[in-house]
Amino acid sequence: MGLNLNKLDRRRFLRGSGFALALPLFGSLLPQNLLADPAVNNPKRLGCFYFPDGVPMPLPEDPSYQEWAWFPHGGGTEFTFTNCMTPLESLKGDLTVFSGFSHPQSRSVHGHNNADQFLTGAYIGGGDKEYKNTISLDQEYVKYVGDKTRVASLVMSTDGGTGTARGTHTISFDRNGRPIPAEHRPKQIFDMLFVKKNNDSARRLALSDSALDEMLADAQSLRKTLSKEDQHSLDEYLDSVRQAELKVDKAKQWLSVPLPTVDREQLNLELTTEHPREYLQTMFELIYLAYKTDTTRVATYQIGRENGVGRSDHLARAIGFNLAHQLSHETKNPNGWKNFGLYCQFLNEEFGRFVGKLKENPEPAGTGCMLDNTLLLMGSASSAFHLSRNYPIILAGGKQMGLKHGQYINNAGMNFQGGPWLGKREPWQDQAKGSDLPLSNLYVTMLQRLGVSAESFADSTGVIEGI
Q1: Distance (Å, whole) CA 227 – CA 26
Q2: Of 33-47, 105-119, 419-433, highest mean pLDDT
Q3: How far, in Å, CA of 289 to CA of 287, rounded?
Q4: Whole-prediction pTM value?
Q5: How do 73-75 and 78-80 pair as beta strands?
Q6: Residues 6+ positions from 298 with CB-CB distance below 8 Å
Q7: Which of 51, 408, 418, 448 lies 20 to 30 Å from 273, alpha-carbon distance?
Q8: Do residues 159 and 305 lie in contact, with contact meaning Cβ atoms separated by under 8 Å?
Q9: What is the DSSP string of 21-51?
Q10: Taking 50 as the threshold, does the pLDDT of residue 201 lie above it?
């Protein structure tokens, strides 16, 4: 059905004092003939999330292997999570874990150089003159879906901007391989997504405690035109926006603290009393609201940059550690695997909270839940210490796109490399013990499930069957 969704009377806003706040889709406001068309009512969304520094990979003979190895034990539908993954236990039927996948052109490269190519699969060389990237997975999908929403794609990171070659602060790259700057300030993201401003709006907002306060009268008027189900959705949405405003206000206090130029071994004490967990939750909450209002259908979030550089390294303070990257270096110490695993557990907990929220909320003006119509990719471009192979990958959602979950696709088997770094050779310098499949095979599979007529992406060799 060839409809221009932007022309439908569905882009409703609450208005007040020069602001306009985007609303979710309400079934009672849509023409009845559209309600029967799942292609219109179930937008297909994509979210890609990246964390740096790999995951715990103790060897099987290590006592920590059973509890703190990141990858599950088993395979197929018969697998068990370790402590790293327990926050995802209740979502086991809504996700698939992959091992034995990586990008062929990066397998012999130091793991800290690879965030740039996580969504592109490109060969980015070893020196600055060689650096050349290609389009990322999210932007490939934007070419097909970007004109259906007000914001073509939401590009976010904890550190913001673009970073440097092989030290990127963004995992999104345009069709010419240029990095797309990522936004890291929750207030700016909130305003970009949900608030339209006129020339007088900033002055007016200064007189109000909240942008939402200015719109409540308009909300009450709209409420009278909605069905009881949509009234409940409106109330729930306004509460979510209010909570997001409160979280943004707290989170921006942390990000407004400048990072001083000091020796990297010194601690930035200005951040120790702030709220990194709440910041991470706020970033996920903003993506959720953007999806729910159909303001965008594509989002990327680089949770941290590689090599312990930037404010994202302080996220480990949410669970009582100083620096996240340091944990990957200290696995040979007593409780080293456990400490690193606890940080991965924290990341999975917040990712799981976001996935769970999409699962709990029905598709606005559509069928199923929001998670059923959203593909969520979570992973890193290294596994064991600096090893650019066997990427840790989770794919969640998309059941209404035909995805079959509740699986661990264990292509690596027991042919993985790991163990603590003892100060000599690193795993990435050793000959590979197994043969990874191209991660781009998963990307082609994802694009096809999103409705894109894609036969290949980057260096793919096919699709992944059985998911």
Answers
A1: 9
A2: 105-119
A3: 5
A4: 0.81
A5: antiparallel
A6: 45, 46, 47, 138, 141, 142, 145, 146, 152, 153, 154
A7: 51
A8: yes
A9: EE----GGGS-HHHHT-HHHHS--EEEEEE-
A10: no
pLDDT score of 145: 93
Partner residues linked to 99 by β-bridges: 410
Question: 325: which 2 tokens?
Answer: 């990257």
With CA atoms as reference, report the closest residue to 277 among 182, 379, 184, 350: 350
Summarised one tens digit per residue, pLDDT across range 386-400 is: 889 999 999 999 999
Helices (H), 195-329: 201-206, 216-223, 228-255, 276-292, 324-329
- How far apart are alpha carbons 184 and 164 in whole angstroms? 16
50 — phi, psi (to 5°)?
A: -125, 135
Helices (H) and strands (E) in the chain, counts: 12, 16
Residue 388, both tokens: 């650019």
The full DSSP string for 117-176 is: GTTT-----SSGGG------HHHHHHHHHGGGSSSS-EEEESS-B-EETTEES---B-TT
The dihedral over CA atoms of 425, 428, 429, 434, expressed in degrees to the nearest 10, equals 120
Specify the pLDDT at position 124. 85
- Binned at pLDDT 50, 70 and 90, residue 6 comes out as very low
How far is 464 from 467, CA to CA, in rounded Å? 7
Residue 281 confidence (pLDDT) above 70: yes
- Domain 45-197+271-449 -> CATH class: alpha beta
Q: Which amino acid is at 300?
A: T
Q: Which residues pair with 409 in a beta bridge?
A: 98
For residue 50, the cross-strand partners are 302, 379
User: Does position 38 have pLDDT exceeding 50, yes or no?
Assistant: no
Q: Which two tokens stand for residue 286?
A: 């903003």
- Paired sense of beta strands 101-102 and 437-438, if any: parallel
Instruction: State the Cα–Cα distance between residues 351 and 354, nearest whole angstrom.
Output: 5
Domain layout of the chain by residue ranges: 45-197+271-449
Sign of CA dihedral 245, 357, 157, 420: positive
Looking at residues 177-195, what average pLDDT do you find? 85
Distances (CA, A) of 455 to 177, 377, 463: 20, 20, 9
* Position 329, amino acid: H
Percent of the chain at pLDDT above 90?
52
- Measure the CA–CA gap between 55 and 52, rounded to whole angstroms: 9
